[in-house]
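User: hey, got a sec? need Chloride channel protein folded
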Amino acid sequence: MVNAGDMNGSGNLMDFLDEPFPDVGTYEDFHTIDWLREKSRDTDRHRKITSKSKESIWEFIKSLLDAWSGWVVMLLIGLLAGTLAGVIDLAVDWMTDLKEGVCLSAFWYSHEQCCWTSNETTFDDRDKCPQWQKWSELLVNQSEGASAYILNYFLYIMWALCFAFLAVSLVRVFAPYACGSGIPEIKTILSGFIIRGYLGKWTLLIKTVTLVLVVSSGLSLGKEGPLVHVACCCGNFFSSLFSKYSKNEGKRREVLSAAAAAGVSVAFGAPIGGVLFSLEEVSYYFPLKTLWRSFFAALVAAFTLRSINPFGNSRLVLFYVEYHTPWYMAELFPFILLGVFGGLWGTLFIRCNIAWCRRRKTTRLGKYPVLEVIVITAITAIIAYPNPYTRRSTSELISELFNDCGALESSQLCDYINDPNMTRPVDDIPDRPAGPGVYTAMWQLALALVFKIVITIFTFGMKIPSGLFIPSMAVGAMAGRMVGIGVEQLAYHHHDWIIFRNWCRPGADCVTPGLYAMVGAAACLGGVTRMTVSLVVIMFELTGGLEYIVPLMAAAVTSKWVADAFGKEGIYEAHIHLNGYPFLDVKDEFTHRTLATDVMRPRRGEAPLSVLTQDSMTVEDVETLIKETDYNGFPVVVSKDSERLNGFAQRRELILAIKNARQRQDGVVSNSIVYFTEDPPELPPNSPHPLKLRRILNLSPFTVTDHTPMETVVDIFRKLGLRQCLVTRSGRLLGIITKKDVLRHMAQMANQDPESIMFN
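Assistant: Yep! Here you go:
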């Protein structure tokens, strides 16, 4: 062992930390990453690879592989996300139909596929074929009558309960993180928060399986939000295969942003909408490079889904529509009214759903998640079966509501009274008076609308995968279709009114009720999520209605204005706050005139700040400080008297460094001096081996003065993604502001409970 005297004299001491040791630079669960540090580490890594690439051909090839690894990850994410989405679509189609009957020729065929393969299907009865049998036909050989109806009704409920029970049990036992939509948590993770296991392999597997089960059970939820979570799980899995991403949490989040785009791309068949959704709604840090990679991942995912062709219509989505009539300026008024309805529905839904979820968290209700799912499923199935519009899957319902009434449509919504003398082309059918089928459909839709509004409030947030896009669109599409039929009949019966005279002559096809359904769907989705640009792009990619961008924009903007008048938070932000995630929203404005000194800790009357000195504390002193406090890091000062700032050391890295030093470096004992300077301090002879920890010291921690306005501090935290910021005056350390302090202060200023932002 080298004695301390020799050590003090030698200038080239071995610093064991010059070699990186395991887990340094990683973060604990439920902690925030340091964006600046991650960026600086990636820059150092890139610089090292670039300088090495000039040394040999092999190093040059390695540098090329490193540069291409990002694109390879995007390709893999796109392929897996597209494949999973296709499999989910096919499985949902089959299992939804399984509640009503089975295909005798091949039990794995859905109703539609079964009748496609039949040679005995007629055009008028295209849904009926001998190969497809309802359960009553199969079990008691009856297709009509009360007993057949009751048996089908009973089996419909039993299948729904079976699917829902299996889903909630799988989530509860194997992957508790697989519940919910996943978008609030994805937003939080992308802002720099660590939730270990949330994007793990078990979560991916269980979420994929249970998503099929819950959508098939007929509950009022969609698969679109959870598909974003599934795609991000794929992104996390593939990024762990490349050290460039697995060892850098900042770079990993760039991959997850692109994966979110791929998720929306396959959920809606909207690659551009997916990229814009990731940019507008979920991402926190979105550099230009991530934009290109998101575009590529969304393209590959959409291409993969198109190759699988799950809907059999050579489209990426179930509800592709083609309208043949233009819209007119006078129609902007009903479109804006639908926007107002969407905004009001969004506000009502957010307030009621958050109140119900809060009740679930704070009362005994939350202790019985399985029972809650079973009860809601039973109520949904019992009420949904008698109404043909709620019995079918929500995607099929939206598809029917979006459809224009052509000559070949057999839906009740298209039961108009035809003029026998009509000799018009098939795609240009004039407005006609509504028949009895339309009036029946109207009151059934009205009942379905009320049911959907109420049941979705209780369904979203249960311990099963649950998306909100499809139920919101269904509410808007039902309201829109009813408004559309109303305007159409008004125009038909009163074509001499001044507003209709210019554009709606007798015998003209001037109002398209399906377009109103599309606009209503966009308005309601916008009211709940507060999306604007990405929403409009998703809607016209979803439906192929390029001509109708202006009505969609008008409805989306109106719904956002109306909803914002009652509260700025969308449903995802509301759930982030409910769960207490430390999420600093870029959209929030801070306008209060407070200073850094009002927020920093320690406050007056509190114990002084826990600090480390640069060269006068022993290993035992540092370990005691770590044991007695739960802070994530400690400022390092020159001495406790001067309090001049030297740097900042993370708690986790101090623990790891001391543990490794005791294992790997001889002579490090409890009374060894810990120093953070370049040269060791002057020590008396025969002192134990000192421990140099300069490598783990952040020499450039972010500092502000005590008179910095909090508006500026909040902006710095948002734009730089800081974990903490030190407060100084004339170089002397006064206190510290952490991200949670900022969030607490913002909650206090908004007259909310400051402790409500703590993660629970």
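Quick note: Confidence is low (pLDDT under 50) at residues 1-19, 423-427. Let me know if you need anything else on Chloride channel protein.
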